[in-house]
Amino acid sequence: MTTHTLSDTGVMLGRSMRHITRSLDTIITVTIMPIGFMLLFVFVFGGAIQAGTDHYVDYLMPGILLIAIASGISYTAFRLFNDLKGGIFERFHSMPIARSSVLWGHVLTSLVSNLVSVAIIVGVGFAIGFRSPAGVAAWLAVVGILVLFTLALTWIAVIAGLSASSPDGATAFSYPIIFLPFVSSAFVPTDTMPGPVRAFAENQPVTSIVNAIRALLARQPVGHDIWIALAWCVGILVAAYAVAMVVYRRKIG
Amino acid sequence: MLLFVYVFGGAISHGASSGSYLGYLLPGILLMTVASGVSYTAFRIFTDMTTGIFGRFRSMPIARSGVLWSHVLTSLVANLVSIAVVFGVAFAMGFRTGAGVAAWFAVAGILILYTLALTWVAVIPGLTAKSISGASGFSYPLIFLPFVSSAFVPTSTMPGPVRWFAENQPVTPIVDTIRHLFAGQPVSNDIWIALGWMVGILLVAFTGAMLVYRRKIS
């Protein structure tokens, strides 16, 4: 049964990936905004921002990666919405395939395309002066956190894609998620913010994730930030997955 | 404004003489308000063009330029209302100025001239666009210009080529002039550069708009 599910998911992943490779503009669109923010904040605002580091691009990079993922997952919701409206789900359900594989195909496609976007942004980061003394283990840990973050947000996107009544509704959910890094430690240290804003910034998921990635890339001790980050990612992932499955069963039941 | 004041403001060094970051930021926010506001003028003109109301107006005994001027003056009024709202929010956030009546009039004059200049720029895409997004899309570069100027951070903190661009584009002298007027400081020759830019853009855009308009309605 597990083998059957895995092979079905592989087929669905292949199908969704073909959609991506035939419209590479989606990856370009996803990367343009974060790269734009990175260039703006590094070359225009960076010299005036006191972030406690000589190279602001090193400070900024983790937040930009999270913004890239947050904007990338909206396409998952959009593609799911299109599949649902196009009636392809019904055709899949009439075939002897694992039902969950349809969703997992979209989720894994999101993961692959977002990792490509992240790689492009890191490449641009290196081109504009980003450097990291991190070893292989630290880089693998960063990739692991980003994979977990992508999966968590993608399952949120699945809910929006399944329950939306218009393409705009399917993608609009991502705006608050894209905005979250702005009110976190992604761009400036939280201790420079006024009381209530600081309280919010220090207790929302992005700050701990950004701090963990930043510490890993700078080869500094990650403290307990990494555990808070993992707890947020896993918590969101489990909750979103559970809700997505309930919505999916209701839709196809 | 809220984002830059309450989230980024504490970490941005903008020069001790400038007082609070809100006071430093406000002139740029006002220009961004105008830049985003003028896109609606282009949208309204485009709508009038496509619905054929221009043709009906031409059959009436009214001055041809009156149709465009009404859109331009509507933009001016609407943008002044938007500016007043932004000022209200800024005051609620703690913005204070020691500027006298003359300085306030000078600021109002600059903002009116800036609005007129950008509105006549907006008239051109409104008349020539083939789609709604095309009519309003021109405003994105105008909204973006204040970001690469002295509106958010001092140009002295920017790297070479960016700094050169920031110091030689229209928004910087306009922002600096308004900032000095609010702070009760001498405006130096910034005001003349600002006026030069605005009058220049206004004349070029007005001429271009009138040429396009005549071509469209002939």
UniProtKB/TrEMBL annotation, chain A:
<protein>
    <recommendedName>
        <fullName>Transport permease protein</fullName>
    </recommendedName>
</protein>
<keyword id="KW-0813">Transport</keyword>
<keyword id="KW-1133">Transmembrane helix</keyword>
<feature type="transmembrane region" description="Helical">
    <location>
        <begin position="170"/>
        <end position="188"/>
    </location>
</feature>
<keyword id="KW-1003">Cell membrane</keyword>
<dbReference type="InterPro" id="IPR013525">
    <property type="entry name" value="ABC2_TM"/>
</dbReference>
<dbReference type="GO" id="GO:0043190">
    <property type="term" value="C:ATP-binding cassette (ABC) transporter complex"/>
</dbReference>
<feature type="transmembrane region" description="Helical">
    <location>
        <begin position="136"/>
        <end position="158"/>
    </location>
</feature>
<dbReference type="InterPro" id="IPR047817">
    <property type="entry name" value="ABC2_TM_bact-type"/>
</dbReference>
<keyword id="KW-0812">Transmembrane</keyword>
<dbReference type="Pfam" id="PF01061">
    <property type="entry name" value="ABC2_membrane"/>
</dbReference>
<dbReference type="GO" id="GO:0140359">
    <property type="term" value="F:ABC-type transporter activity"/>
</dbReference>
<feature type="transmembrane region" description="Helical">
    <location>
        <begin position="59"/>
        <end position="81"/>
    </location>
</feature>
<comment type="similarity">
    <text>Belongs to the ABC-2 integral membrane protein family.</text>
</comment>
<dbReference type="GO" id="GO:0046677">
    <property type="term" value="P:response to antibiotic"/>
</dbReference>
<dbReference type="InterPro" id="IPR000412">
    <property type="entry name" value="ABC_2_transport"/>
</dbReference>
<feature type="transmembrane region" description="Helical">
    <location>
        <begin position="226"/>
        <end position="248"/>
    </location>
</feature>
<feature type="transmembrane region" description="Helical">
    <location>
        <begin position="24"/>
        <end position="47"/>
    </location>
</feature>
<feature type="domain" description="ABC transmembrane type-2">
    <location>
        <begin position="25"/>
        <end position="251"/>
    </location>
</feature>
<feature type="transmembrane region" description="Helical">
    <location>
        <begin position="102"/>
        <end position="130"/>
    </location>
</feature>
<keyword id="KW-0046">Antibiotic resistance</keyword>
<dbReference type="InterPro" id="IPR051784">
    <property type="entry name" value="Nod_factor_ABC_transporter"/>
</dbReference>
Automatic annotation (TrEMBL), chain B:
<dbReference type="GO" id="GO:0140359">
    <property type="term" value="F:ABC-type transporter activity"/>
</dbReference>
<dbReference type="InterPro" id="IPR051784">
    <property type="entry name" value="Nod_factor_ABC_transporter"/>
</dbReference>
<keyword id="KW-0812">Transmembrane</keyword>
<keyword id="KW-0046">Antibiotic resistance</keyword>
<dbReference type="InterPro" id="IPR000412">
    <property type="entry name" value="ABC_2_transport"/>
</dbReference>
<feature type="transmembrane region" description="Helical">
    <location>
        <begin position="25"/>
        <end position="46"/>
    </location>
</feature>
<keyword id="KW-1133">Transmembrane helix</keyword>
<feature type="transmembrane region" description="Helical">
    <location>
        <begin position="135"/>
        <end position="153"/>
    </location>
</feature>
<dbReference type="Pfam" id="PF01061">
    <property type="entry name" value="ABC2_membrane"/>
</dbReference>
<feature type="domain" description="ABC-2 type transporter transmembrane">
    <location>
        <begin position="2"/>
        <end position="181"/>
    </location>
</feature>
<feature type="transmembrane region" description="Helical">
    <location>
        <begin position="191"/>
        <end position="213"/>
    </location>
</feature>
<dbReference type="InterPro" id="IPR013525">
    <property type="entry name" value="ABC2_TM"/>
</dbReference>
<dbReference type="GO" id="GO:0046677">
    <property type="term" value="P:response to antibiotic"/>
</dbReference>
<keyword id="KW-0472">Membrane</keyword>
<feature type="transmembrane region" description="Helical">
    <location>
        <begin position="67"/>
        <end position="95"/>
    </location>
</feature>
<feature type="transmembrane region" description="Helical">
    <location>
        <begin position="101"/>
        <end position="123"/>
    </location>
</feature>
<protein>
    <submittedName>
        <fullName>Transport permease protein</fullName>
    </submittedName>
</protein>
<dbReference type="GO" id="GO:0043190">
    <property type="term" value="C:ATP-binding cassette (ABC) transporter complex"/>
</dbReference>
